């Protein structure tokens, strides 16, 4: 299946299951994977449609979902699966995650109670469902073994530490990473490890919690999931909360029909090692998605992750026990390195004052007119990019529609072009915010003002809102005509 067809196929799957065509469809934001999501509704029938070209990953997801449902764990029900197993429909749990609630309410008592509900479920994922999993059916890897642990550490090394350009002894560090990987992999007991158990993957509906994105699960360390939940960088849980919720995990264990045999002191020690491993793995992911792919959300996450690393090293000076790794981590949390990733602070009044006008246009109809009285601003020419307008399938669509978005992201150098554009515009934005200016214009032109320029203008708007929280107005001149 071509990626551009997935919306059509999900609409068809909805129609086949419900015998009705959806009245409403909403494309949902793409995260770090190749999976794409849309919300489809008709009257009382509401589902999330998923497209994932990786059938092996889908099969693991279907297996886990069915197994967890049998265990009574709160996961989205599978509504329908297509014959080719690349598209499927699941229960719509709404749009609110535990992270969303925490961002809105802060560290409230309600939020803490939702964390406790999540831990109640987590012990069941670990010690009830974990006993029934056929780990040979896991996607990619069945066990979080020494190779998987080393892979996480190397991910951190290559995609963050090396890009941060700090000095360390590479042969010694590699030997230490190998030793740590072997030691952690030998820890027992092991059980089902969710792998990415964090507040963005916990949906909240009617004060109940539900869990998504577990297809990467495998046999591994239960401590890793606790570390993922309690030490999520952008969640910034208070230190007291982390300790209270860790203690609550042991309380929740006592509520299980069959209480697992765990040596609590050893469990807590390995938990602290998993916290550090998770922080490093996360920094590697942020480095790849942020420093290499230049995705704003991940760039924005690097500084809080480094702050968290600094707090960990101060709170637990006995870790890591490896000299070269400790030296490297101490270098990474020095003020000079932290400042590189800290978003510049601007006066609040200047952030409110600066207005950015963004426009898309056709060069055939002339340059856009600046009515602000300021003059200047940026005009970027998108005509050097592969044009979807040359193909019949896209002629009636615009750069705001999914097939064109897919084309430009996969068949053109749009991402590379925008990385340079963002870096250029950011220089002026930060100068204007520092000096208290009130207006900036940014325009994108292409042949017809329909595809490339529209996409680029929308992307610029998202970038400025996400990175700076600016007030942005956007106009697609030829579409408004």
Q: What is the oligomeric state here?
A: single chain
What overall form do the CA principal axes indicate? Answer: globular
Q: Catalogue the unreliable spans.
A: none
Figure out the total of helices: 17
Helix content: 40-55%
Q: Report on the biggest sheet.
A: 5 strands, antiparallel
Topology-level CATH name of the largest domain: Aminoglycoside 3'-phosphotransferase, Chain: A, domain 2
Please state the CA-atom Rg, rounded to the nearest Å: 24 Å
Straight-line distance between termini: 36 Å
Total beta-strand segments: 13
Give the topology, please:
Elements: H1 6-18, E1 24-27, E2 36-42, E3 45-51, H2 55-70, E4 78-81, E5 87-91, H3 98-105, H4 109-127, H5 146-161, H6 170-185, E6 191-193, E7 202-205, E8 208-211, E9 218-220, H7 222-230, H8 239-253, H9 264-292, H10 296-315, H11 323-332, H12 335-341, H13 348-353, E10 355-362, E11 378-381, H14 402-411, H15 414-435, E12 439-446, H16 452-468, E13 471-476, H17 477-480
Parallel strand pairs: 10-12, 10-13, 11-12
Antiparallel strand pairs: 1-2, 2-3, 3-5, 4-5, 6-9, 7-8
